Amino acid sequence: MKEKEGNNIEVWEDLVKIKDLAKALIICIITTFSGYFLAPNDSYKPLLFGLVGAITGFIISSIIIEPKRKFIQEE
Fold first, then answer.
1. Cα–Cα distance between 46 and 75 in angstroms, integer?
2. Global confidence as pTM
3. In angstroms, rounded to a whole number, what is the distance separating the alpha carbons of residues 30 and 42?
4. Domain spans of the chain?
């Protein structure tokens, strides 16, 4: 178990692979900034498009990066 923990860091009391965390951050940054910079220059639209981009990045990251947890049901 200690060998696997070498590639992981603790985020909010959960172990996360550094490589997967970096992938998710890059995906979310790209989609958020894309939405922000592609938005029309009205008063609230850059914020709205940026938020939609962040949610889109989260959805893409959750599809690409598979969870590593395994639940075992005990009686």
1. 52
2. 0.77
3. 21
4. 7-64
